[in-house]
Design brief:
The chain is α+β, with helices and mostly antiparallel strands. Helices cover about 45% and strands about 25% of the residues. The strands form eight sheets. Strands 8-7-6-11-10-9 form a six-stranded antiparallel β-sheet, sandwiched between helices. A five-stranded antiparallel β-sheet has the order 13-12-16-15-14, sandwiched between helices.
C-alpha cells in the first residue's frame, strides 16, 4: 500500500516559496533547515543531513554524522550516487542506501537520506533529486552573482580612480598652458616660473633646473630648495650631470638614493635626505644642455602623467634655451656687423616702408658732410631731398622691381648732394627683411658706400679704353705673372676672341709650347731692360692656326719705381706675309708655267709626230697582225700621255677659277645624261637632291669635272661586279665647332655637301690615308695617273671647302664634297646653335668594328649617363644579346661588320628580343645604304661620323619613342 502523501504538494509549494525568498536574500542555513524538515516528513525517510561545500549545514530532526568517505568521494569525482561509496567503512553501520547530489567539483553540496522504507520513498525520489538540482543551481548562481558584483565594484573603483586621474591631468595641463602663455621675454623669470610649476604639480620636495655652463653645473631655476644650496658646483658626481652626458632623451627615475653611489658623490642626496630623483634632459639644437628635475625625501614611484608633465616642462625649457642662444648669437652678430661696418666705412639705413620712418647711422651722414643731429628727424623724405633728380627715377624703378620679387635685392649707384654743395657717388644696397600680413614690404635694411673715387677712376679708365679700342693695333696689359687684366678689341679680334674671354687668361693662350720658349726669353729681356721689340713673334689663333705678329713691350712701374704690370702693343703681319707668299708663289708658278709650257709644246709636237705616223700605219691594210696591234697600243699610249700632260699642267698652275653663285642641284641635273653614258648601262645612277639647297660660290665647270672624276672612280671600283649603284645626293648641313673638335678634317659653319656613294670594292685605312697624294693610284700600271682625287682636293681647297672620304672594304666608298654656303655680305656670321645634350641611364649595346669609332661613341654615351656594352663584330654582338638581353634597352648597330652585319643582328633582335630598340649606323648616307640594305618602316638610321649632339638626341628620341 502506497503511503499517503497528501501533504506533499504543500511541502513542494513551501520549498518553491522558500527558494523564491532565498533568491532575494539567500541564507544557506535557513535553506538547509527547511529542506531537512521537508525531506524527513516524506514517507520512508528516517533521517536527513544536508552538507554544502564540505560543511554540515543542517542535520534535520535527528543527528546523522556525514561520512568522511562520502565527502571525499564527492570532492574528488563530483559525481552523484545512491548508496554508500565504494570502500566505505561505515557501510554496514548505515545499513540503508543514501541519495547524494552535487553541483560541481569545487562548489558541491550533498543530501544524505536514511531510507527506512524504499517502497514508500520511491515515488518521491524524483522530487528530492529535482529539488536538490534546483538548490545546487541556486547556490551556483548565488556564487556567480557575488563574483559579478565584486567585479563591478572593482570596475567602478577603477573608473572612479581613472576619472580622478584624468581630471587631475587636465588641471595640470591647464596650469601648464596658462603658464606657457604668460611667459615673457625674460629668460631668468621664465625658467624660475617653469621650475616652480614643475615642483608644485608633481608634489615634490623641491625642483631644480641645472644647466652645464662653462664646465660648471649651474642652478638656473629652483623651487622650495634649502637656502644653503650652492648655485654652482663642479659637475662630477651629480645626478643631473650624468643625465646630461648620457645623451638620453627620456625621463630618468632613481629610487632608494641612499642605497646608490650618489649618496656619496652627489652632495645634496645625503645632506638633504633625498630618496627619489626624477629628471628629464633639456635639449637645445638636439644637444642635452641641462636637466629639469624633482626630488623627494621619500621613495615614490611617479605616475605616467607626472612624467609627462616633466617632459612638457623640459620641452618648454628647451625653447627658452634656443631663444636665449638665438639672442646671444644675434647680439654677437650685431656686434660683428657693427665692427665690420665701422671697419669698411659703410653707412647703414633702416626704412619702414609703410610709415616712411628711416634710421641712419653716423657714417651714413658723415659721408655727405653732416652730423646725425643736423639731419634729424630723418625719414624717407631725407633721401628724396638728397638724391640727384636724374637718379631718382632709376632708384624708384629698382625698388618697385624688388618689392614685386623680380630682383632679389635693391642695388643702385646714384649721386647724393654733399653739404659742401658737390655731388658724391654712393652704392646703395638693400633688402626687405619683413612683410605685412597682406604681403606688403614692411622693414627694409641696407647700406651706403662712398664710391666717388672708384667712379672717377672708372671714368679715367673708360677714356683710356676708348682711346686704345679705337686704335688699329692691338694692345694689352698683364700682371707680372702674365695674367691678362686688359686687352683691346682689336687684339682680341685678330686672335678670334671677344675681349671678355681673355680677361684673367695667361699670355700663353696666344702661343704653343714651342713658341713659349721664345716668349720666355723675350720676357726675361723685358724685366732686365724694361722694354723689348719691335720683333716678330708667331701667335696662335683661337681656331689653332698660327700667324705672325710684330710686338713691342714695356714695364709699367709704380711711384716707387717698382714694376707692377707689363704692357704690349702688336700689329698683325698676316696680310704682309700672305702678300709675300703670293708674290713668291706667283714668281715660282711663272717659272714653272714657262717650263711646263715649253715642255708641253715640244712634247706635244713629238706626240703629234708619233700619233700621226701611227694613224698612217693603222690606216693601211695590215699585212702583219702583230705589228698592227703593236702600233695600235703605241697610239693608245701616246693619247694617254697627252692627257696626262694636260692634267699635270692644270694641277701645276693652280688653275684660275671663274666663281659665281650656283645651285649644286642644277649642276648635277645638267651632268646626269653624260654621266649615265660614262658609267655604263650595268651601273644604276641615282640622284637624291636636297630640298631648299643653299647657293655656293663656285666654278660650275670645275664642279662638273669633279663630279665626272668621282663617278669614273666609282665606276672603276665596281668594274668586277655584274651590277652596282652610284648615288649622288645633296643637302644643307651645319657643322658646329664642337663637332670639329672631334673631326679635325671638318670646318665649322654652314655648308652644302655633295656626296657620291658607290657599292664597289671599297678601300682600307692605309689606302684612304694616301688617296689625295699626287700620282698615287690603286689601279694597274697604265690605267690611272693618280691625279684624279688630288686634282679634286686642290680644286675644292681653292673653293675654301673640304673633302671627306668614308670607305669599307667590300662595301663601297662615299666621297663628300663640302662647299661653304654663299652668305650675303651684310649678314653676320651664323652662330652655332646651342647643342642639346640629353642624358639617360639605360643600357645600350654598341656594335662597331672600327676601334676608334667604337671608343669615341662609347665615351659619348657613358658621359651622358648610359651603361654601354660593346661588340667588335656580329658574333660578339649576338653573344652579348644572349647573355644580357634582359638588361639591354637599345642597340646601335653598324650596317657593315665582319662576321655578321647590322641587318643579321636586327633579325635576331626582332625575333627574340622585341623589347630592344635599334639604331643603325653607317659611313654611307641613309639613301646610299638603300642600295644594299633596305630600311623598313620604323627602322632608325644615323650616318657616321655622327656629332655627339646628333647621336645623343637620336638615342634619347628612340628610347622615349618620339622619333618621326
Amino acid at each position: 500500500m502506497t503511503p499517503s502523501i497528501t501533504t506533499d504538494p504543500a511541502s513542494l509549494g513551501r520549498i518553491l516559496l522558500l527558494q523564491s525568498t532565498l533568491q532575494a536574500s539567500p541564507d544557506e542555513a535557513q535553506l538547509a533547515d527547511m529542506l531537512s524538515g521537508e525531506f524527513t516528513r516524506l514517507p520512508g525517510v528516517r533521517r536527513c543531513v544536508i552538507c554544502i561545500e564540505g560543511r554540515m549545514v543542517s542535520s534535520g530532526n535527528n543527528s546523522l554524522n556525514p561520512l568522511p568517505n562520502c565527502l571525499e568521494w564527492i570532492a574528488e569525482t563530483g559525481e552523484p550516487f545512491v548508496g554508500c561509496p565504494p570502500n566505505c567503512p561505515h557501510q554496514s553501520e548505515m545499513g540503508t542506501p543514501r541519495f547524494i547530489f552535487h553541483t560541481c567539483k569545487r562548489d558541491y553540496g550533498a543530501i544524505f537520506l536514511e531510507i527506512a522504507d524504499e517502497t514508500a520513498f520511491a515515488p518521491y525520489a524524483p522530487f528530492v533529486a529535482n529539488t536538490a538540482n534546483l538548490v545546487a543551481l541556486h547556490i551556483e548562481n548565488t556564487r556567480r552573482g557575488q563574483a559579478l558584483e565584486a567585479a563591478n565594484r572593482e570596475l567602478d573603483q577603477k573608473v572612479t580612480e581613472r576619472t580622478q586621474a584624468l581630471h587631475q591631468s587636465e588641471e595640470r595641463l591647464s596650469e601648464i598652458n596658462t603658464c606657457l602663455l604668460s611667459l615673457g621675454a625674460d629668460y631668468d623669470a621664465n625658467v624660475s616660473r617653469l621650475t616652480e610649476l614643475c615642483g608644485r604639480l608633481l608634489g615634490a620636495t623641491c625642483a631644480l633646473y641645472n644647466r652645464l655652463d662653462g664646465g660648471l653645473l649651474r642652478t638656473m631655476g629652483a623651487w622650495n630648495t634649502p637656502p644653503d644650496l650652492p648655485a654652482t658646483d663642479l659637475p662630477d658626481g651629480h645626478i643631473c650631470y650624468d643625465v646630461i652626458r648620457s645623451g638620453k632623451r627620456e625621463t630618468v627615475v632613481i629610487n632608494h638614493l641612499d642605497q646608490t653611489p650618489y649618496f656619496q658623490t652627489d652632495p645634496g642626496v645625503a645632506r638633504y635626505g633625498l630618496k627619489t630623483y626624477a629628471g628629464h634632459p633639456v635639449l637645445c639644437h638636439h644637444q642635452s644642455v641641462g636637466t629639469i628635475c624633482v626630488v623627494f625625501q621619500e621613495d615614490v614611484s611617479p605616475e605616467e602623467d607626472a612624467l609627462r608633465v616633466l617632459s612638457i616642462i623640459a620641452s618648454a625649457l628647451g625653447v627658452e634655451e634656443r631663444r636665449r642662444q638665438a639672442e646671444v648669437d644675434l647680439r654677437r652678430e650685431k656686434e660683428r656687423l657693427r665692427n665690420i661696418l665701422e671697419g669698411t666705412n659703410v653707412g647703414t639705413w633702416e626704412w619702414n616702408v609703410q610709415t616712411g620712418e628711416t634710421l641712419y647711422n653716423d657714417l651714413w651722414t658723415e659721408m655727405i658732410g653732416y652730423t646725425l643731429e643736423e639731419l634729424s628727424p630723418t625719414s624717407f623724405d631725407t633721401w628724396i631731398e638728397l638724391v640727384h633728380p636724374d637718379d631718382l627715377i632709376g632708384s624708384n624703378t629698382m625698388l618697385e622691381q624688388h618689392f614685386r620679387g623680380e630682383r632679389p635685392f635693391y642695388e643702385i649707384e646714384c649721386r647724393l648732394k654733399h653739404k659742401a654743395g658737390h655731388w658724391i657717388w654712393v652704392l646703395a644696397r638693400g633688402k626687405v627683411i619683413s612683410w605685412t600680413e597682406d604681403g606688403k614690404p614692411l622693414w627694409m635694411y641696407g647700406t651706403h658706400q662712398d664710391i666717388t673715387q672708384r667712379k672717377e677712376a672708372e671714368e679715367h679708365l673708360q677714356r683710356f679704353k676708348t682711346i686704345f679700342d679705337s686704335a688699329n693695333y692691338g694692345c694689352a696689359i698683364a700682371d707680372l705673372d702674365g695674367k691678362l687684366e686688359y686687352i683691346n678689341t682689336h687684339l682680341a679680334t685678330i686672335h678670334g676672341y671677344d675681349p671678355d674671354e681673355l680677361i684673367g687668361k695667361h699670355l700663353s693662350v696666344f702661343h704653343n709650347a714651342e713658341q713659349m720658349q721664345e716668349v720666355t726669353k723675350v720676357n726675361k729681356g723685358l724685366f732686365e731692360k724694361g722694354t723689348f721689340g719691335p720683333l716678330e713673334l708667331w701667335h696662335i689663333h683661337k681656331e689653332g692656326a698660327p700667324f705672325p705678329m710684330l710686338m713691342t713691350g714695356l714695364l709699367i712701374k709704380d711711384n716707387n719705381g717698382r714694376p707692377t704690370h707689363m704692357a704690349v702693343a702688336a700689329i698683325d703681319l698676316t696680310r704682309e706675309v700672305e702678300l709675300e707668299n703670293q708674290l713668291r708663289q706667283a714668281q715660282k708658278m711663272e717659272v714653272v708655267g714657262q717650263l711646263a709650257g715649253g715642255v708641253a709644246h715640244d712634247f706635244n709636237n713629238l706626240l703629234q709626230v708619233i700619233l700621226g705616223y701611227g694613224d698612217v700605219v693603222l690606216s693601211q691594210e695590215a699585212s702583219n697582225k702583230l705589228i698592227h696591234e703593236s702600233i695600235q697600243e703605241m697610239v693608245n699610249a701616246g693619247e694617254r700621255a697627252a692627257a696626262l700632260v694636260r692634267q699635270l699642267l692644270a694641277f701645276s698652275r693652280r688653275q684660275v677659277l671663274t666663281l659665281c653663285e650656283i645651285n649644286l642641284n642644277e649642276v648635277v641635273h645638267d651632268m646626269l645624261k653624260m654621266l649615265k653614258r660614262l658609267i655604263g648601262e650595268h651601273i644604276t645612277l641615282k640622284f637624291l637632291e636636297g630640298a631648299n639647297l643653299a647657293s655656293v660660290r663656285a666654278d660650275a665647270g670645275q664642279i662638273g669635272q669633279i663630279l665626272v672624276n668621282l663617278c669614273v672612280n666609282a665606276r672603276d671600283a665596281m668594274q668586277e661586279q655584274e651590277s652596282g649603284t652610284i648615288t649622288i645626293e645633296t643637302e644643307n648641313v651645319f657643322i658646329s665647332k664642337s663637332y670639329c673638335a672631334n673631326h679635325l678634317w671638318a670646318k665649322p659653319g654652314r655648308h652644302v655637301v655633295m656626296r657620291v656613294t658607290d657599292t664597289g670594292c671599297g678601300m682600307d685605312e692605309a689606302i684612304q690615308e694616301k688617296v689625295f697624294e699626287p700620282f698615287f693610284t690603286t689601279k694597274e700600271v697604265g690605267k690611272g695617273s693618280g691625279l684624279g682625287l688630288s686634282t679634286v682636293y686642290g680644286l675644292i681647297d681653292q673653293h675654301k671647302g673640304f673633302v671627306h672620304i668614308h670607305s669599307e672594304v667590300d662595301h663601297g666608298t662615299a666621297v663628300a664634297i663640302y662647299l661653304p654656303v654663299c652668305e650675303a655680305p651684310e649678314s653676320a656670321p651664323a652662330s652655332s646653335p646651342t647643342e642639346s645634350l640629353p642624358e639617360g641611364n639605360e643600357t645600350i649595346l654598341l656594335s662597331e668594328d672600327d676601334d676608334s669609332v667604337r671608343k669615341l661613341t662609347r665615351a659619348f654615351l657613358e658621359r651622358a649617363g648610359y651603361s654601354v656594352l660593346t661588340a667588335a663584330n656580329g658574333e660578339e654582338a649576338l653573344a652579348v644579346l644572349e647573355k644580357r638581353s634582359a638588361d639591354i634597352d637599345m642597340a646601335i648597330l653598324d650596317v657593315v661588320m665582319p662576321r655578321g652585319g647590322g641587318r643579321t643582328i636586327y633579325e635576331q633582335i626582332k625575333t627574340h628580343y622585341p623589347h630592344i630598340r635599334v639604331l643603325f649606323a653607317s659611313g654611307y648616307s641613309m639613301n646610299a645604304v638603300h642600295t644594299g640594305f633596305v630600311l623598313e618602316e620604323g627602322m632608325m638610321f644615323i650616318q657616321k661620323p655622327a656629332a655627339r649632339g646628333d647621336l645623343l638626341q637620336k638615342v634619347r628620341a628612340i628610347l622615349d619613342g618620339v622619333v618621326e
